[in-house]
Request: fold
Amino acid sequence: MSISKPTTIPELWDNMKLFTDNMEIFMQAVMLRFDHTDTLLDVIATTVNRHENILNQHSQQFIEINQRLDKHEELLTRLTFKSDTHEELLDVLAEQSLHNMQILDRLDSQMKVNSERLNYVEHKVARLEFAK
Reply:
């Protein structure tokens, strides 16, 4: 049934009723659309909340990773310092070892001289004993 130009009051009344029915159907469609929109907004809000939670977790993990990196960096700095100290100690030990080798060479030379003197003295003693 379509709306036509009323010529009588009952026709006007029928047109008003038809208009009211159509408006009611239209309002129901609008309300369904609003309900659908509300449902979509709820889904979107839930998704946004999930993403916020994930971002917060990632942010917390990022903070923890940065703290661990800071600790590792501090350990690396200490190890580097210890490594440098050990390297310096190795250099000192190498120098000391070289110095000790030089001392051993001198002692070896002195021992040869002392051995030659001992041989000379023993030879002299043997000659003196033989001469007696």
About this structure: Residues 9-131 form the longest helix (123 residues). The chain has a mean pLDDT of 91. The two ends are 166 Å apart (CA to CA). The helical segments are 9-131.
